[in-house]
Amino acid sequence: MGSMRLTVFGATGGVGREVVRQALDAGYEVTAVVRDPARLGVADHERLRVEVVRDLTDEDALVPVLAGRDAVVSALGAASNKQARLSPVTGPALRAVLAAMERAGVSRLAAVSAAPVGPDVPSDGVVARKVFLPLLRRALRDLYADLAVMEAELRASGVQWTVIRPPRLLNRPRTGGYRRVIGGNVPGGRVISRADVADALLASLTDPATARRAVGVAA
């Protein structure tokens, strides 16, 4: 599917930039939706179109950047728990994106979430499940609540969605050797590179086994 036409939201973030680069390397046509083009950090490319949309909850503004596309990748996420508390990003944006996708006739989407939004892994042991995860979920509760709203929006929609749930993100190169669990989280999964999360997002778009499923990934 070398000529897939893709729209990427959250294109200026760590995962989003990797999605744009890897999609261009794969031969895709990419529309990168940004608020500030200067933050994209990806070299000009004949198959890259940069579109500025200041308000991602503006459904009418999203339809033109989705028209004629084959699929959507959302790498959106609040930069911090405080930002998620004061101004939730992901849930409200995805609600508008899904409505705009329906109007534009686009039916495939992959979005990044987070491992703590998913289920515990019984084999991870009591300390991880009863101490570490509850502390993490409490410290970042607004951020995870925003992602949980996004996941609920996706489940209620008619699109063929995939949610990728990584643990802690690192700035390391793509390995392609990460672990993946469809419908659950990865046992002992603690970290993964942003580049591998981007790889997982893009790979899911052509993998029917991931349609309407959440996928745990970890190194």
Describe this structure in words.
It contains 7 helices and 10 strands. With about 220 residues, the protein is α/β, with parallel strands linked by helices. The chain has a single domain (about 5-219), classed as NAD(P)-binding Rossmann-like Domain (Rossmann fold, 3-Layer(aba) Sandwich). It has an 8-stranded mixed beta sheet, sandwiched between helices. β1, α1 (about 15-25) and β2 form a beta-alpha-beta unit. The model has no long low-confidence stretch (mean pLDDT about 95).
Nutshell version of this structure?
With 219 residues, the protein is of the alpha/beta class.
Characteristics of this structure?
37% helix; globular; alpha/beta; Rossmann fold; single chain; 21% strand
CATH architecture: 3-Layer(aba) Sandwich
CATH superfamily: NAD(P)-binding Rossmann-like Domain
| Estimated structural class | alpha/beta
Task: Report, as a whole number of angstroms, the end-to-end distance.
Answer: 27 Å
Task: Give helix and strand order, one letter per element, not per position.
Answer: EHEEHEHHEHHEEEEHE
Q: What integer is the average pLDDT?
A: 94
The DSSP helix count reads: 7
Write the layout of secondary structure elements.
Elements: E1 5-9, H1 14-25, E2 29-34, E3 48-52, H2 59-66, E4 71-74, H3 81-86, H4 90-104, E5 108-112, H5 126-139, H6 141-156, E6 160-165, E7 168-170, E8 179-182, E9 191-193, H7 194-204, E10 213-218
Parallel strand pairs: 1-2, 1-4, 2-3, 4-5, 5-6, 6-10, 7-9
Antiparallel strand pairs: 8-10
